[in-house]
Amino acid sequence: MQKDLDVVIIGGGPIGIACALECKKKNLNYVVLEKGALCNSLYNYPLNMTFFSTSEKLEIDNIPFISNNPKPNRNEALEYYRRVATSNDLAIHLFEKVLKVEKKDHLFHIQSEKQMYIAKNTIICTGFYDIPKLLNVPGEDLPKVSHYFKEAHPFVMRKIIIVGASNSAVDAALEIWRKGGDVTMVVRGPQIGERVKYWVRPDIDNRIKEGSIKAIFNSEISSIEPDSVTINTLDGPITLENDFVVALTGYLPNFKFLESLGITLNGDKKVPSYNEETMESNVKGLYLAGVVCGGTETHKWFIENSRVHAQIITDAIVNSINIPQT
Fold first, then answer.
1. Are 77 and 68 in contact (CB under 8 A)?
2. How far is residue 262 CA from its own chain's centroid?
3. H or E stretch including 22?
4. Order of strands across the sheet that contains 236-241
5. Residue 274, number of CB atoms within 10 A of its CB
6. Which of 304, 309, 315, 316 has the alpha carbon at shortest distance from 124?
7. How far apart are CA 302 and CA 317, in angstroms?
């Protein structure tokens, strides 16, 4: 059991690392608990992913992020955050999943897979990449269906359905097509998503226009079979031969975990309650940072506009427990 902690940070991604840096600067006794690898969500991104943000907007604590191009890729980001964590000797426990958090007598009891931690404050930086938005159609549990895309090689010379029209869906469609996959996009709306990266949009629009990548707009999958997919379109249902379905329809924060902590979720978008001036939730001493603050609107918070949460939260914690500063 580890006692007398000022802060337990749940989540070891970029925002969790930023919180750890601020805790260390402010003499707060802290630990970061991460259920997977360092920056686990980034690690699970597609191998060839390029960020929308430039490298300086992904920096934390004014530590320079130097990349080969203005917009860094996944590997460069992983290397940057690893160096930040290791060079600052941050107290991060990897592959240690949090099982339960309870508040007793004004202290948080955090039970992980390995031990119990007792802390005055808890910061939730758990992101949103672990729970995919499901299609909820028959056959979604078949082995041919995935809600993540890592690389194109497994799809070479196969018939692929890409579900979605966001950046992840467009990137997957283009990469698989370039590697020799037969790609059809199934898009709920009338066009490719409005937030698709501006330098990628002409590419996907032209590939669709020339027929290299097929796109069925205003449509939804109704069922998935071992060798085919049935799609509801404006002209009625159609069935296509198919080898793999890659459903990139987005991801959600772990709302059950938030509710188990006593956090109030508001409205259809399940936005958690928190004080914007301190990032403290409706549970005293429990703070929220990063994407988890947006509920189902996971596009509202990302690294470049939520890295400031670390300083806001730690300032509030210092003020609440009167930690001496150096």
1. no
2. 22
3. helix 14-25
4. 220-225, 228-233, 236-241
5. 22
6. 309
7. 23
Q: Nearest CA to 224 among 249, 205, 241?
A: 241
Can you name the residues that pair with 2 across neighbouring β-strands? Answer: 117
Residues in the chain: 326
| Spatial distance between the Cα atoms of 169 and 223, rounded to a whole number of angstroms | 19
Angle at which helix 167-178 crosses helix 201-210, to 10 degrees, equals 60
- For residue 88, which of 96, 80, 97 has the smallest C-alpha distance? 80
| Alpha carbon distance 22, 313 (integer Å) | 9
CA atoms 66, 68, 72, 73: torsion sign: negative
User: Of 170, 135, 127, nearest to 149 (Cα)?
Assistant: 170
| Residue-by-residue pLDDT tens, the chain, 326 positions | 888 899 999 999 999 999 999 999 999 999 999 999 999 999 999 999 999 889 999 999 989 999 999 899 999 999 999 999 999 999 999 999 999 999 998 999 999 999 999 999 999 999 988 899 999 999 999 999 999 999 999 999 999 999 999 999 999 999 999 999 999 999 999 999 888 988 999 999 999 999 999 999 999 999 999 999 999 999 999 999 999 999 999 999 999 999 999 999 999 999 999 999 999 999 999 999 999 999 999 888 989 999 999 999 999 999 987 654 44
Per the CB < 8 A criterion, the answer to whether 6 and 118 are in contact is no
CB atoms within 10 A of CB 271: 16
Q: Residue 51 gets which letter from DSSP? A: -
Dihedral of the alpha carbons of 58, 61, 67, 69, in degrees to the nearest 10: 40
Tell whether the torsion through CA atoms of 127, 129, 131 and 136 is positive or negative.
Answer: positive
Q: Which amino acid is at 42?
A: L
Cα torsion angle, 304, 305, 311, 314, sign = negative
- What domains are defined for the chain? 2-131+251-321 (3.50.50.60), 134-247 (3.50.50.60)
